Amino acid sequence: MTTAHILGFPRIGAQRELKFSLEAYWRGEITEATLLDSGRDLRSRHWALQRQAGLDMVSVGDFAWYDQVLNTLALLGALPTRFGFDAQALSLADYFVAARGNQQHVAMEMTKWFDTNYHYLVPEWTADTRFDGGVNWLFDELAESKAEGQVAKVSLIGPLSLLYLGKVKGGLAHALDLLPALIPAYQTILARLQQAGVAWLQIDEPILALELDARWLDAYAPAYTALAAQAPKLMLTTYFETVQERAGLLHSLPLAGVHLDLVRAPQQLPLLLAGWPQGRVLSAGVIDGRNIWRGDLAAALQQLQAARQQLGPDLWVASSCSLLHVPVDLQSESALDAEIKSWLAFATQKLAEVAALKRSLQGEAAAVAPQFEAARQALHSRRNSRRIHNPLVQQRLARIAAEESGRRSAFPARSKAQQERFQLPLFPTTTIGSFPQTAELRQARASYKRGRLSHLDYLETMRAEIRAVLQQQERLGLDVLVHGEPERNDMVEYFGEQLWGYGFTLNGWVQSYGSRCVKPPFIYGDVYRPEAMTVAWSAYAQSLSEKPVKGMLTGPVTMLQWSFVRDDQPRATTALQIALALRDEVADLEQAGIGMIQIDEPAFREGLPLRAGDRSHYLAWAVRAFKLCSSGVSDATQIHTHMCYSEFNDILPSIAAMDADVITIETSRSDMELLDGFGEFAYPNDIGPGVYDIHSPRVPRVAEMQRLLQKARSVIPDARLWLNPDCGLKTRDWPVTIAALENLVQTARLLRASVQETEEHVDCC
Ligand code: GLN
Ligand code: ZN
After folding, report:
1. Burial bucket for residue 418 (CB in 10 Å: 0-12, 13-18, 19+)
2. Whole-number Cα distances in Å, 396 to 144, 551, 577, 632
3. Is 555 in the pocket of ligand 1 (CB under 6 A)?
4. Does the beta carbon of 69 lie inside 6 Å of ligand 1?
């Protein structure tokens, strides 16, 4: 026999039930009791799916009202003390205050869960953090699953990963200083689970796949020795990277099992199997929990068989990580082409894949032969389909060197040519691209998509908006204009829909944070641009103004990063294909007289691999893709790029290597601190550090922007400094937008006047 399990199931629901219940509850439309019912209902349904698929244990502990890290804190009684909650009597309302904030309290900070697009709430570790026990939700859920007659495996975030993922604040020197208090809290929980009859506890320690210093590594043995004393059998899980460097440590810990991600890091299997302790379970994560492709069952089986020889029934079959990162069910995707659909597997389908592998391993190959055959056929069609393999793209990629020579001149010469052409004032003002997306605009786009608004009526609605946006910018006195992006609902989807090789789902939602979900497109084939995508809009906008209107594109890394990507070729290859498509768009824009083209790369930094050692390779191809798409233009064409989020300093050389003429970045929230890096590194080209935070609904005052600019000017020479908000304005309303931009333009005018005065003063003395 062998055992089949998963590391967690998406909690949001196939129809995003959790999202809608949460939001209705927050609006006061449903009671807490109704919300609780909907959670119970979802858990029950998800367990039923796991059971019916043939898994040996259902996953308990993967449910969370907002986030699994926050749930762990609630369980331990360790929500940030600044909220002043009674840990043992924590209510759901309190929990949501921590997650979302209210008038009195700022919400907990949120950050990405490793290299996924899921965001967790960051624990706040202070000297007065306590772990005296909290809510009983986990035990209630366990009882629910038992009442349904299921064998439950409970999952918990491990103590060391939990500490590591938090932020050290007030009065604490190091997160590990809290470990002596945390271990007894885990011991209490583990003992309770054991008493409740839980045989296996999945304890997630994903940080073991990161580069850890000795202090963290040394903490493992004593911590796990203390935990194992009175507990269910411990299955320590790792994922998202190899843990091969940790083989010795893992082997020495008192664990009943270890889980490895064999999708991301298949090479670690033999290295871990050497010296594998007798009687220890290996949970082999062979079904991809991070992507939507149907598994290659034959290959997975082969991988498993090698381990099976050594381990016998101690080999388990599993998903590579929690299925939280994939959509719930492919079944409802009624609009997908049948061939493409045959290539995919969402969470529900992945359950069946795990179960089929288990049955095949334990001698029931005949029973699952149809599933293996279907997987084989899907793979065969992916290898050969003309929907995927486009000779035009491949031939061009093979000759890519010819297109990779970079810009014709270096920045100083380009800058001169551009200045002659555009005659911009000192401290040019601009915006990042989008203007407020009103309900009418959304409505018009939706009606057009559903065929309820004719093409010409749609065009006129959008053109009317572009006219209004341009008029407004002229009135405000901005120097470099944008068309406002009214025709786009999403910066990746908009382009993906116009490119071959991109697929879309109706319902492929994945939780991003709390009740927020995203529906990423998927890239299945060679990316090819059959025709111009933005030229008509940009050319129309430019025809309305004497001032430059920026063309607006989404860069190759962001197009890749915010999509599910191919697993049959390196990410770098896909990025280059997208870059070639964008390169043609850039050329067409230039041809149409668009003198400034902005290529947004807000996801550039997110693409960084988890391990420092892999970063230079990533940065090299990411920069290469950006240069490929942006460098085909003449010196007098100005290339802009935009990046959100702070923390650039460690990748500044790569940002400089992208060689955009102007970069606009988010700096206002960090009070321009991140600019220090730009100064130290002597960033060579133009920079527009965001002078106000568009995420806040308040109107920035002139004095505030002046203060920020003063800081910026100490780092960036005046001649290369632009003024702009820190991101697009699509989430703001018009009155705030206008008031903010009036102040921004006023700030630029005052600054120009003061510089002129000093210059005159210098002249006369
Ligand atoms: N041009 C886009 C906009 O203004 C950029 C969005 C982003 O950086 N996320 O909306
Ligand atoms: Zn942005």
Report:
1. buried
2. 58, 25, 9, 15
3. no
4. no
DSSP assignment of 416-435 equals: HHHHHHH-PPSS-B---SB-
Q: Which residues surround ligand 2, an ion (CB under 5 A)?
A: 602, 644, 727
Q: Which atom of ligand 1 is nearest to the CA of 434?
A: 4
Sheet of 200-204: strand order equals 3-5, 315-319, 281-287, 257-261, 233-237, 200-204, 152-157, 58-60
| 108 exposure class (CB count in 10 Å sphere: 0-12, 13-18, 19+) | buried
- Cross-strand pairs, 323: none
Instruction: Give Rg (Cα) of the chain.
Output: 28
Contact 22, 515 (CB under 8 A): yes
Query: Taking the alpha carbons of 298, 303, 306, 309 in that order, is the dihedral positive or negative?
Result: negative
**Backbone dihedral region for residue 66 (phi beyond 0: left; psi -120 to 50: alpha; all else: beta):** alpha
Beta bridge partners of 651: none
Q: Is the CB of 665 under 6 A from ligand 1?
A: no
Q: How many residues does the chain have?
A: 765
End-to-end alpha carbon distance in the chain = 92
Question: Which pairs with CB-CB distance under 8 Å and at least 24 residues apart come from 608-617?
Answer: 608/115, 608/651, 609/115, 610/114, 610/115, 610/209, 610/210, 610/240, 610/241, 611/210, 611/211, 611/241, 612/211, 613/211
pLDDT band with cut points at 50, 70 and 90 for residue 45 = very high
Query: pLDDT (tens digit, 9 = 90+) per residue, 297-344?
Result: 999 999 999 999 999 999 999 999 999 999 999 999 999 999 999 999
Sign of CA dihedral 262, 266, 270, 275: negative
Q: Among the atoms of ligand 1, which is closest to the Cα of residue 598? A: 1
Q: State whether residue 315 is helix, strand or coil.
A: strand
* DSSP type of residue 153: E
Enter the tokens of residue 575: 């990025």
Q: What is the distance in A from the centroid of ligand 2 to the CA of 104?
A: 28
Looking only at the bridges linking them, the beta strands covering 119-121 and 551-554 are: unpaired
Ligand 1 within 6 A of CB of 432? yes
Q: Where residue 763 falls among pLDDT bands split at 50, 70, 90?
A: low
Amino acid at 463: R
Distance 346 CA to ligand 1 centre (A): 29
Looking at the annotation, which residues are catalytic? Answer: 695
Cα-to-centroid distance, 726 and ligand 1 (Å):
10
Ligand nearest the Cα of residue 666 is 2
Q: Is the CB of 675 under 6 A from ligand 1?
A: no
CA-to-CA distance for 612 and 572, rounded, in angstroms?
A: 18
Closest C-alpha among 655, 650, 708, 711 to residue 685: 655
- What are 129-148's pLDDT values in tens digits? 999 999 999 999 999 999 99
- Ligand 2 centroid to Cα of residue 599, in Å, is 11
**How would you class 501 by CB atoms within 10 Å of its CB: exposed for 0-12, middle for 13-18, buried for 19 or more?**
buried
Q: What is the DSSP letter of 324?
A: G
Alpha-carbon distance values, 703 to 389, 419, 430, 674, 750 (Å): 56, 29, 19, 20, 11
Going by C-beta distance under 8 Å and a sequence separation of 6 or more, which residues neighbour residue 307?
269, 273, 282, 284, 315
Query: In this predicted structure, what is the pLDDT of residue 576?
Result: 98
Query: pLDDT tens-digit profile of 212-224?
Result: 999 999 999 999 9
- 673-704 residues labelled b (16+ CB within 10 A) or e (exposed): ebbebbeeeebebbbbbbbbbbeeeebbeeeb
Checking if the pLDDT of 764 tops 70, the result is no
Distance, in Å, from the CA atom of 613 to the CA atom of 271, rounded to the nearest integer, reads 19
